[in-house]
Amino acid sequence: MKFFIYSRKSVYTGKGESIENQIEMCRQYIHTKFPDAADTDITIYEDEGFSAKNTDRPQFQQMLRDIKSQKPDYVVCYRLDRISRNVSDFSSLIEDLNDRSISFVCIKEEFDTSKPMGKAMMYIASVFAQLERETIAERVRDNMLMLARTGRWLGGTTPTGYTSEKQQEIIIDGKVKTSCKLKDNPEELTAVDTIFEKFLEMRSISGVSKYLIRQGIRSRGGAFFSLPGIKDILQNPVYCIADMDALAYFRELNSDVCFEEKDCSDKYGLLAYNKRDYKKKHAPRQSADKWIIAIGKHKGRVSGKKWVAVQNIIADNIPTGKKPAKMHNDYALLSGLIYCSKCGNRMFAKQRSGKSANPDLYDYVCSSKLRGGTALCDCQNIGGRQADDMVCEYLTRYTDESSGIYRLLEKLRQELRGQTQENPLAGIDAQIKKYSGEMDNLVETLSRGNLGEAFVQRVNAKITELDQTISELTRERERMQKDALLASDKEMQLDMLAGALSSLKKHLPELSVYEKRTLVRLLVQKIVWDGKDLHIFMDGE
Predict the structure, then answer these.
(1) Residue 425 belongs to what domain range?
(2) Across residues 364-390, what is the average pLDDT?
(3) 111-125, 224-238, 437-451, 526-540: which range is least confident on average?
């Protein structure tokens, strides 16, 4: 008889049954129940550091593949939850084993699917295992939210201006529990105070950023504050004092406010919990009506009135109050396509201000300069219309037949066609079909029975070898298929480029800004401005 033993442990700790203990107990069970079984008939699969929330575990998946090719008599594990706590995953495995006449044994609960009662009890136990997992997760979440209402800091990255300090308190049934609170970081709080002060003065996040750069004020990591970083600070309730204005504001937003009028003072700041939905991918920010707002154990920095004023200014700066501002203009050809040679950052179009401001009067300005002024980069601006005309004129000259670009395009097209004339996929498909047929014949041979043990082992080894070969061929086929599609796309792009070039001189004035941008991206690799000259690097040169 042939046995597979599967063992799993979630984390590398000394707690619980180790991988080695699980395997040893399974071995003892096999030798007790099946005295004639030899160690050579036992295959071990070990997954350490993987949870049972799903079956995406390397050794578990390898066992499933081996079950199809080697067909053991029994799959043995120490405990049911070593396989999975998900009823659907567990049911699929048991059904697959049943279809192959393979018994599943769980030694701790003493379930054996070779017997009808064991099969029924195993399904029932799997349901309770999943229920336990979901209940534990829900209980942990509820406990975290309950602690949040007490104003404790629950961990994670501390906000700018604070550090996390552990403290011990007697909380439940005389048990000593460790909790945390936020502790002031005076140096960082000075920067926070400046950010709020300057934003109320300038009403602009960009203006605050430039001021901080000029003053040399940096973030915790030593870099200048980013625009999103400044906005996060301005919108974080942790800096808001828990006063009546703050209470009214969050009640109006229908947040879960965990304090009353009598608790309001200028002594403590707020803590906001449940701001993100961690059940979803990337943990998106939730609306304020899902937040839990409690009084923390740290001192606030900004009065509720000023903090609410900041939120209103931020909302007013967003067009319509709902959607973000338009990020791309419809007048500048090279916005974001030019690079500053001094700092290496992109240059973007900025309309000139003043009485005569119009779309025809704009400059390309280095993004560092836009953000922090000449303190970050003092590269000279370049006139927008002038730069656009220079690039268009250069491209028009570049597309003359004498420039050699058409010969280059034809050469590339011939190379691509040479790569796609042969069809290597046909050869791969033939090999896959051949090896699949051999493996089917070997499996059919095994099903006949009355075969010697040595012969069976050789056949199983050959089946495993063929399966690996087919997998490698399948991966190679997928790679070749992708290469063929890429070659086809490149040839199509070359045809489009040749067509665009042939009619460029005639139709260039008729193209929209967006169409011209597409053309520039097709032809130009990079454009660099050094403060005096505009350098155009063509693709392929």
Answers:
(1) 401-510
(2) 89
(3) 111-125
One domain for residues 13 and 131: yes
Tens of pLDDT, residue by residue over 246-290, are 999 999 999 888 889 999 998 899 998 888 877 777 778 888 888
- Which candidate, 428, 436, 439, 335, places its Cα nearest to that of 387? 335
Residue 216 covered by a domain? yes
pLDDT at residue number 10: 75
Closest by alpha carbon to 148, among 300, 250, 287, 271?
Answer: 271
Q: What is the mean pLDDT of the chain?
A: 79
DSSP secondary structure string for all residues of 407-473:
HHHHHHHHHHHHHHHS-HHHHHHHHHHHHHHHHHHHHHHHTT----HHHHHHHHHHHHHHHHHHHHH
- Report pLDDT for 320: 46
**492: phi then psi, degrees, rounded to nearest 5:** -65, -40
d(CA 254, CA 237): 15
Residues 136 and 9 in one domain: yes
Give the model's pLDDT for residue 232: 93
Band of residue 408 on the pLDDT scale cut at 50, 70, 90: low
Query: How far apart are alpha carbons 207 and 372 in whole angstroms?
Result: 9
pTM (2 d.p.):
0.47
Q: Is residue 73 part of a domain?
A: yes
β-strands 3-9, 74-77: how paired?
A: parallel
Strands 292-295 vs 270-273: parallel, antiparallel or unpaired: antiparallel
Q: What is the pLDDT of residues 25-44, one digit of tens each?
A: 999 999 888 888 787 789 99
Percent of the residues in the chain that have a pLDDT greater than 70, as a whole number: 74
The mean pLDDT of 213-219, rounded to a whole number, is 90
Boundary-marking domain end, from 270, 289, 321: 321
Residue 446 located in a structural domain? yes
At 269, the amino acid letter reads G
- Strand 524-529 and strand 534-538: pairing? antiparallel
Whether the pLDDT of residue 292 is over 80: the answer is yes
CA atoms within a 13 Å half-sphere pointing along the CA-CB vector of 497 = 22
Q: 20 with 139, same domain?
A: yes
Pair 375, 213: CB distance under 8 Å: yes
Contacts of 301 (CB under 8 A, 6+ apart): 161, 189, 192, 193, 196, 239, 241, 269
Question: What is the spatial distance between Cα 91 and Cα 487, in angstroms, rounded to a whole number?
Answer: 45
The CATH number given to whatever domain includes residue 123 is 3.40.50.1390
Q: How far apart are the first and last CA of the chain?
A: 68
Alpha-carbon Rg for the chain, nearest whole angstrom, is 34
CA 279 to chain CA centroid, nearest Å: 14
User: Does 533 reside within a domain?
Assistant: no
Q: Is residue 223 domain-shared with residue 176, that is, in the same domain?
A: yes
Residues 236 and 309 in one domain: yes
